[in-house]
Design goal:
The protein is of the alpha/beta class. About 55% of the residues lie in helices and about 10% in strands. It is built from 45 helices and 22 strands.
Length: about 1350
């Protein structure tokens, strides 16, 4: 029985549907499989690297916290009255250094907020807020100054390092009050209660330690009272952490106002800290017996070095330690890199300080004998000065620490016991006060204000300040409880036109990857709902003679690509002895704009392919974007809330939910050939999810392809992203988020003056260039003008095809260059309003962009000057003659571009590019030899050359996966004249050409080549042949009209034809209607889509009826007839049968032939593996598309007068832009030429030094303009390099945080199971497979 099933299944699989693209045979086992999963990213090594980096970060945080606290305590020690390291006359200088450590964080915070207030603006708080902030900061600053300047220098070093753990008393009290106020008296309230008790017990033991045997009780009581009171005041530092939990609801505005006016609040706190601590210092120096005049007294070199080392070490370690602690939290390594190192740092201080003291004591004891005790060591070695410590700085610090311990009497057990108990109470109390930090659940990427309350760190007590500043959570979740997240909606929207089969594969495979990464029904990741939409431009063709619109070859390729990729992602569920299994139901719909294909992906997500008919709706990329934005955001999102409002729901509640939905709805803009992996999308989502002012984020675009043109673009793209994009991101905003891979926030797109303006039709010449030639840049311009931020994430990689031919590359840049220039000028034209509206764009950043735009305008003249230098160096001629020679070729090319055709211009540019490349190669070798033989690297040419080379090499090394691209840098240098001189001329002169420039002549794989133009006689002859062919096809009962074929005299031989003859083998009968009768069918006839009451009489031995209805009758059927998948109205291929159609025998009167539409064509091409169900849109959605088309997307009328007017206006704009552009370059050249004539009078004389920095006596003469331009350009490159380092660091932090969280959630998986998809464990058993074949139709 099992063998019979297997034979039957195999037989059906071998027969299959011969018209399907995936007709399967068991011997055809060789496969072609595209790259599906991320094989380029070594996740195993990345996990190991992430673990090592986190461990390194934790060790560095521990070391920096230890260094910061140790240096601060040593400053306190040498400031004490018993210190020997600093003479008494320099004690005021030590106190000044301590004051610097207290106010350094406030000073840095003040500078930062002054910058924000000046360039970004600020809001003023109310009087109540000002009074509250100033009062609290006054108490905190006073307590910190008294503790560090007046109290701690008179205590011993062990007490000083442990008493700082007692600054948590008010934090614990606030925690108790917050939980009591919220009526959450659960187990979490126990820790702060015990913390308060332990800290108070520690204070009691501390007072007993210093007051029981003190000689001057009054002075000792004063010092101890100041220490205890100061720690209590310092514990008020973090009051803002608990303010939201303590305020009544009617006072909640106070917290909101403090956040809204954060700039002014930070300025108030910083100024108060500086003023109060300065007053305390100014008052304490005279009271302690010192004088301010001693600050200016001579200082011994050893003392100066000691103080500078301790103060500098403390400041540097505090700043870096604070930043690394923030980075550890953002990397999602809270416990191992933040909490554990900081807690251990407090404990490690004790052995760090006590070990040297007792080591030197042990050495002294070994020298004196075994009866030598610590009391005698204190009396003889310390107080009497008879010690063997030496006079070094370290030895003097050890002596100071030993002196303090001897004064306390630690050799007595009681003193040691009291000190130990006090230290334990304080440390455990501090641990309990910060116990809530262990329950914090961090998201992948968080801002500093989400992690910590105060932006100002505490440099003097770094670890206590960081731990107590961590944001307090009233209800800490359990460790295994997932952090609740808002629901997000992601729409992947790709625009497609004439992509090839392989390019379509890339985007479809990427969508299927995401479907596997975020399944629709996965409860663990159900906070993110995903849909994919592809908007297919120009998806239909006009059938000759009949004039009907059918899907073109590109759409047919898309359907085949979907089936192929669907099979690839199902391979791990299939048996190796069966062909591709059936694909889930797909729905085809007629729509007002053309058609639609709905595909349910293997893991439940939806893919919708919108087929646009350009005769019904506007085509091209911008209008496709408008189409999906209005559909997804306007219709799918806002209309839903409008209906709720009509049903009478609360308007305020609806508005709040709508704003939240808009904020959490993202659109991923894609091109039809983009290839990406799920982590790239998640990294972009992180940016928008955590930063509400970010309206768009783009990733790193990698061009793909082969050939020198692609190699040039690879380095150019790398250079642009390494330096320019990072500089824009760090200094201000990214100006262009490319449409091939960018994530947009729905709320940003729906903001005023963005999407509405984006629908503006091109009515002026400039509109065609700014709006249609660079739609992605214009959309970003609108978002920036409205105040939204655009960011760049370097770890989010996407791949897209780049032009491989010289002509295609030039045409692409011809479209990009004018649109970039137009949008930049538009953006900078309103710079004052832009800086006021957008908080991410400052006036210095606008100056930077103005310089960039100015440099791009003057780039042709700059290249001419560079060529001038080359010719002058190679030919040894005067620079002025070299300048004339250098400008002649581009001037001639500029003039010819006005008269030659575009193709001829490109050909001429290609020839000139080769010549310029040869000159560049010779010049580059000459410059290198000149730098070697000139015996100096301090000339302007050498400095600029070395700077550029070092910047590019280091930038490549900082991008390990892209470091190999530095090899293409040589090609980039050779192509500089072509890319920046000839291409600029070609782009500006041809800016009146507003065609797309790429893919316009491309044809899909297998598409018919359009016939050559014919004369009238040939056209008439073809028409007669078509009419004859149509009549012939009708006689043959052809379902599909012959007019749909490109070759005359051919009758739809590639499609099944209904033949009413009996006894003919291999006859295929498609879609008989209900109650049809088929008599005498041949031995291997196939009847597809039979109606509910069909009758087959005398069928042969191997007839197959697919999709037969419930009342079909097979009379005299052979032994192997099969009736598969009975349905009442719709066949297995989804064709609805016609109730009036009939099939008659040959010779009978022919019934009218039903014309086949595009849906039928796609059904037949797909075979029986796919169930294409036909459906229709709901009435209200149909009305939406009709209204949208009528208002915004109605095709432009074919107005010849309007076209001529547009062409004329574009030429006028081209002429004006060309004159301004090249006149500016001419001015630059004339200025340089004039200054060279006046070289002796106006040149800058730069002394010439050799490589050993010895003046040679010669001078290098440089023109002022050249010098300023070169200096500014080098400075600009250095600035971009520094911003790249900053951006690279934060990209690494974000990526490690992503890896850590994804590993916890289990989303980063090994791809082994995909590589071994044919393993036996993946097979299904034969019974299940037979059931599938029974349910899904004939297996093919």
């Amino acid at each position: 029985m099992v063998g019979g099933k297997k034979a039957e299944i195999l037989h059906k699989a071998m027969e299959g549907d011969k018209h399907s693209s995936y007709y399967w045979k068991p011997w055809d086992t060789f496969k072609e499989r595209p790259e599906i999963h991320d094989g380029a990213t070594p996740w195993k090594y990345i996990k190991i690297l992430s673990f090592l980096l986190c461990c390194l970060c934790g060790l560095v945080v521990f070391a920096l916290a230890l260094c910061s606290k140790a240096s601060f305590l040593l400053l306190i020690t040498v400031a004490g009255p018993t210190g020997h390291s600093v003479p008494p006359e320099n004690k005021a200088l030590v106190l000044l250094a301590i004051w610097g450590t207290l106010v350094a964080p406030s000073l840095l915070l003040m500078i930062k907020n002054i910058w924000k207030a000046v360039f970004f603006g600020s809001k003023l708080p109310s009087e109540h807020t000002v009074v509250l902030v100033v009062s609290m900061e006054f108490l905190v600053s006073g307590g910190a100054a008294v503790l560090a300047l007046a109290a701690m220098p008179h205590l011993d070093i062990v007490t000083n390092m442990t008493i700082l753990n007692s600054v948590a008393v008010f934090s614990s009290l606030f925690q108790v009050a917050s939980r009591s106020h919220a009526r959450l008296c659960n187990s979490w309230i126990v820790a702060p209660v015990f913390s308060v008790l332990l800290i108070l017990a520690g204070h009691t033991l501390f007072l007993a330690l210093y007051l029981m045997d003190a000689e001057g009780r009054r002075e000792a009581a004063l010092r101890c009272g100041l220490a205890v009171g100061a720690t209590v005041l310092v514990s008020l530092t973090w009051w803002q952490n608990y303010l939201p939990h303590l305020l009544l609801p009617r006072h909640a505005w106070l917290t909101e106002e403090m956040q809204r006016c954060a700039v002014v609040v930070h300025l108030l706190t910083s100024f108060t800290r500086l003023a109060v601590t300065a007053c305390v210092l100014a008052a304490y120096v005279p009271l302690s017996g010192g004088a301010w005049s001693s600050v200016w007294a001579p200082v011994a070199p050893a003392v100066g070095r000691l103080l500078a080392t301790l103060a500098g070490l403390q400041l540097l370690s505090s700043v870096v330690g604070h930043w690394l602690s923030l980075a550890a939290c953002k990397m999602n390594a809270l416990r191992r890199c933040f909490l554990l190192p900081l807690y251990l740092a407090s404990l490690a201080l004790l052995p760090l300080f006590l070990a040297p003291v007792f080591i030197y004591f042990q050495l002294q004891q070994d020298a004196e004998g075994p009866g030598y005790g610590f009391a005698r060591y204190c009396e003889e070695a310390v107080h009497a000065g008879r010690h063997t410590l030496g006079d070094g700085g370290f030895q003097r610090l050890v002596l100071d620490a030993t002196t303090q311990l001897c004064a306390l009497g630690v050799e007595r057990p009681r003193q040691t016991g009291l000190l130990t108990c006090a230290a334990v109470c304080w440390w455990v109390g501090f641990l309990l006060a910060t116990a809530h930090t262990w329950a914090l659940r961090l998201q992948r990427i968080q801002t500093t204000k989400q992690l910590f309350v105060r932006r100002m760190y505490e440099g003097a007590w770094l670890e206590q300040g960081l731990l107590l500043n961590a944001r307090f959570n009233m209800r800490p979740p359990l460790r295994r409880t997932p952090v609740p997240e808002e629901k997000l909606t992601l729409y992947m929207c790709a625009t497609m036109w004439h992509e090839t089969f392989s390019e379509m594969e890339k985007i479809i495979i990427s969508i299927f990857r995401w479907d596997q990464f975020r399944p629709h029904d996965d409860r663990e990741v159900n906070n993110l709902t995903t849909e994919a939409h592809i908007f297919f431009d120009d998806a239909f063709r006009t059938v000759p003679v009949s004039g009907e619109r059918h899907a073109n070859q590109y759409v047919e390729d898309m359907v085949q690509v979907i089936q192929k990729v669907y099979s690839l992602f199902q391979e791990d569920e299939q048996s190796p002895f069966m062909g591709p299994g059936p694909i889930g139901d797909q729905i085809l719909l007629h729509t007002p704009y053309g058609g639609r294909l709905n595909v349910t992906l293997p893991c439940g997500n939806l893919l919708v392919v919108h087929l646009k008919d350009k005769s019904l709706i506007r085509h091209k990329k911008r209008w496709s974007q408008i189409m999906y934005m209005y559909y997804l955001l306007g219709w799918r999102l806002d209309t839903r809330f409008y209906r709720r409002w009509l049903n009478g729901e609360d308007q305020a509640q609806i508005e709040r939910e709508k704003e939240r939905e808009r904020k959490n709805t993202y659109i991923l803009a894609l091109d039809g050939d983009t290839d990406f992996h799920p982590p790239a999308v998640m990294l972009l989502i992180d940016r928008l999810k955590q930063y509400p002012d970010v309206g768009a984020a783009c990733g790193r675009i990698h061009p793909t392809g082969t050939g020198p043109i692609v190699w040039y673009q690879k380095f150019e793209y790398a250079l642009t992203h390494w330096l320019y994009k990072t500089a824009e991101h760090v200094l201000g905003c990214v100006l262009c988020s490319p449409g091939c891979f960018s994530l947009f926030r729905g709320a940003a797109l729906m903001d005023v003056n963005i999407m509405k303006r984006y629908t503006t039709p091109p009515t002026e010449a400039l509109h065609h260039i700014q709006y249609d030639q660079g739609e992605d840049r214009w959309l970003c311009t609108l978002m920036l003008q409205q105040g939204w931020r655009v960011e760049y994430n370097a770890a989010s990689d996407a791949y897209t095809n780049a032009p491989e031919g010289f002509k295609e590359f030039y045409n692409q840049r011809r479209r990009w260059t004018p649109s970039t220039l137009a949008n930049s000028i538009d953006l900078l034209g309103g710079s004052i309003r832009l800086a006021r509206k957008n908080r991410s764009i400052s006036r210095p950043y606008l100056l930077y962009e103005m310089f960039i735009v100015g440099s791009s305008i003057l780039i042709p003249a700059t290249v001419c000057l560079m060529v001038t230098g080359m010719l002058s160096l190679l030919l040894a001629i005067d620079p002025n003659w070299a300048l004339i020679l250098a400008t002649i070729p581009p001037a001639i090319y500029l003039g010819l571009c006005f008269y030659l055709k575009a193709d001829t211009q490109v050909t001429l540019a290609a020839v000139l590019s080769v010549l310029y490349a040869l000159i560049m190669m010779v010049t580059m070798l000459t410059v290198i030899s000149f730098l070697v033989t000139d015996d100096t690297i301090f000339s302007p040419l050498a400095i600029s050359f070395v700077t550029f080379v070092m910047v590019y090499v280091v930038a490549a090394l900082l991008h390990p996966q892209e470091a190999h691209l530095i090899v293409y840098g040589l090609l980039y240098i050779l192509a500089i004249p072509s890319a920046y001189l000839l291409l600029s001329i070609y782009s500006i002169v041809n800016m009146n050409n507003v065609s797309w420039g790429t893919r316009e002549g491309a044809a899909a794989a297998g598409a018919a080549v359009p016939p050559p133009p014919r004369n009238k006689m040939e056209s008439a002859r073809d028409t007669m042949r078509q009419l004859y062919q149509q009549a012939r096809c009708c006689r043959c009962s052809c379902l599909r009209e012959c007019s749909g074929y490109t070759q005359v005299g051919q009758c739809d031989s590639d499609l099944p034809v209904i033949a009413a003859t009996g006894g003919e083998p291999m006859t295929t009968m498609v879609e008989p209607g209900p109650q049809n009768t088929v008599v005498g069918a041949g031995p291997q006839n196939t009847i597809v889509g039979a109606g509910p009451q069909n009758t087959i009489v005398g069928a042969g031995p191997q007839n197959t009826v697919v999709g037969a209805g419930p009342q079909n009758t097979v009379v005299g059927a052979g032994p192997q007839n099969t009736i598969v998948e009975r349905q009442p109205e719709i066949s297995s291929v989804g064709v609805q049968t016609s109730p009036q159609s009939s099939l008659r025998r040959r010779g009978s009167p022919l019934s009218p032939v039903r014309r086949q539409d595009w849906i039928d064509r796609l059904r037949v091409l797909s075979g029986v593996r796919v169930s294409f169900l036909e459906d229709s849109l709901e009435e209200h959605e149909t009305q939406f598309w009709n209204d949208l088309t009528e208002r915004y997307l109605k095709p432009f009328p074919d107005d010849e007068d309007k076209k001529r007017e547009t062409i004329k206006s574009l030429r006028e704009l081209r002429n004006m832009a060309t004159f301004i552009y090249f006149f500016a370059n001419l001015l630059w050249l004339v200025a340089t030429f004039t200054l060279q004539l006046l070289k002796g009078a106006l040149s800058i004389r730069i002394p010439k030094y050799d490589n050993s920095l010895t003046f040679t006596g010669d001078y290098i003469l440089v023109e002022p303009v050249t010098f300023m331009f070169l200096f500014t350009f080098v400075l600009l490159v250095v600035l971009q390099f520094l911003t790249m380092l900053f951006h690279r660091t934060y990209t690494l932090i974000h990526f490690i945080g992503y890896v850590n969280t994804e590993m916890k959630e289990g989303h980063i998986q090994s791809s082994d199971r995909f590589e071994n998809s044919w393993s036996p464990e993946a097979w299904v058993n034969e019974d299940e497979l037979y059931s599938v074949s029974q349910a899904g139709g004939t297996m093919v």
